[in-house]
Amino acid sequence: MSITILGLGPGDPELLTRKAWRILSEGTEIFLRTARHPGVEALPSSVYHSFDDLYDKAQDFDSLYQQIAEQVVALGKRDQGVIYAVPGHPLVGESTVTRILALAQTQQMAVEIVDGLSFIEPTLDALQLDALGGVQIHDAVDIANMHHPPLNPDLPALLAQVYSLSVASDVKLTLSNQYPDEHPVTLVHAAGTPAQVIEQVPLYAIDHSEHISHLTSLYVPPLTQAGSFERFQEVMAHLRAPEGCPWDRKQDHLTLRRYLIEETYEVLDALDNEDMDSLQEELGDLLLQIVFHAQIATEAGDFRMADVLNYVITKMIKRHPHVWGDVQVNDADDVLRNWEKLKQQEKAEHAEPEAIKSVFDGVPNSLPALAQASAYHERAARTGFDWTDVQQVIEKLHEEIDEVLRATNDAERKDEIGDMLTVVVNIARWLKVDPETALRDSNRKFKRRFQFIEQHAGRPVNELTFDQMEELWAQAKAEERKGQ
After folding, report:
1. What is the pLDDT of residues 381-409, one digit of tens each?
2. With contact defined as beta carbons under 8 Å apart, do 135 and 155 qualify?
């Protein structure tokens, strides 16, 4: 009772190991995962069976591989055991083998692995590539099912089993989330066989190849410029190292606080100006602050970047059960309501028994007042504390304006103006307008129009009458309308 799992290599019979050839020669019955392999016809004489008939009946590869594994283990329980042969190396991209090993372990069955040359070695040869140069190896089918590739773009990557145009198309879409469409890649077909073909094409064209088959792999070279998160962390760790930069080594969480605030507002400026070049730069500067803080925490033993990423990955998946679960939502409002419920559940799970839980937990005290008001009222509204329609809010604004006018001293006026602004924030919320953005846009518009007055006054602005200023203001508005 035993199982022998043998690697048939990439396809050229001359690349079979001597041990594999001997076992195949001495065996009286060999079971092949598939007879669709270039070297099968040249194998030593024996009785060969394949599981190819199961491929046409299986609903998916997962159930197919499980069925093959179970049959191989059943065959292995015979007195003569079983010899099971697979393409390449048994432990390189062979799902049936990992399943057989798991089943055999639970049933205390002996398994012998007979090594075979995998697709990797002849592919490296075809590409003249050193595997120790950081080559990342992945299954193309896994990449095809993702939305962003799990690849370091500063290192080369080799994707196996690009077995159809459909897989190639899906792989292309995933890779394009990280690599430019024109990024040069190489398709390697039937590596290690006389039918080997090498195609160098741009990424966007990989699903146009006429040679794609079950023996196709894709080589993705590194980006020409550094672009990995890992490289960024190396740069920051180097700056903080003893041989690094004295200024960077001197910083701590508190000394960096003002830079984090400044970079955040510079990102907002780029967004307000719809300047994509500036946005790219400012997002980099903001990310620098995040990586800087994470490196300081790493050195102190508080946490590492992986902990930061794990937290936010876990949170995003947990907070989106309508994407990664079976919760049904109708629109974005449903998503927000569900998000709030999940947040409260999480707080209840982690809070101390005597802690007071509030919907406002997590809204920073340091937020600008307008943004803070918006956050407070949006959260309160999710609990049902809200007007029934926007007209009621507008009527409330008129009440607050009257109260401002009736105020008799500075303290009352301050309070009433605060209440009036709060109602304005709620009107914005009802009309689905971000008040912070609206006010920033209005500030920019005011600045632009007043600068028009300054530029066209012909003398210092403070020497103009109010009517003259009004006339120039009207001209500024007219110029804006022309440009729209």
Report:
1. 988 899 999 999 999 999 999 999 999 99
2. yes
What residues does each domain of the chain span?
2-117, 121-220, 229-318, 436-483
Which fold does the domain 229-318 belong to in CATH?
A: Helix Hairpins (1.10.287)
Of 47, 17, 22, which is closest to residue 32 (Cα–Cα)? 47
Band of residue 133 on the pLDDT scale cut at 50, 70, 90: very high
Report the pLDDT value the prediction gives residue 364, as an integer from 0 to 100.
Answer: 83
Structural contact between residues 156 and 218, judged by C-beta atoms closer than 8 angstroms: no
Neighbours of 246 (CB within 10 A): 7
Closest Cα partner for 382 from 344, 435, 346? 344
Instruction: State how far the Cα of 189 lies from the Cα of 211, in Å rounded to an integer.
Output: 7
CATH 3.40.1010.10 for domain 2-117, yes or no, is: yes
pTM: 0.76
CA 207 – CA 210 distance, rounded (Å):
9
Q: Are 195 and 105 in contact (CB under 8 A)?
A: no
Q: How far is CA 189 from CA 144, 183, 214, 218, 221, in A?
A: 18, 19, 9, 9, 17
> What is the DSSP code (8-state) at residue 44?
P
Over residues 24-80, the pLDDT tens digits come to 999 889 999 999 888 888 888 888 999 999 987 888 888 999 999 999 999 999 999
How many other β-carbons are positioned within 10 Å of the β-carbon of residue 324?
11
Q: Token pair 């490196």 is at which residue?
A: 295
- Model confidence pLDDT, tens digit, residues 256-288: 998 998 999 899 899 988 999 999 999 999 999
Q: In what order do the strands lie in the sheet with 110-114?
A: 47-50, 29-32, 82-86, 2-7, 110-114
121-220 has which CATH code?
A: 3.30.950.10
Helix (H) or strand (E) holding 220: strand 216-220
CA 314/CA 174 separation, integer angstroms? 22
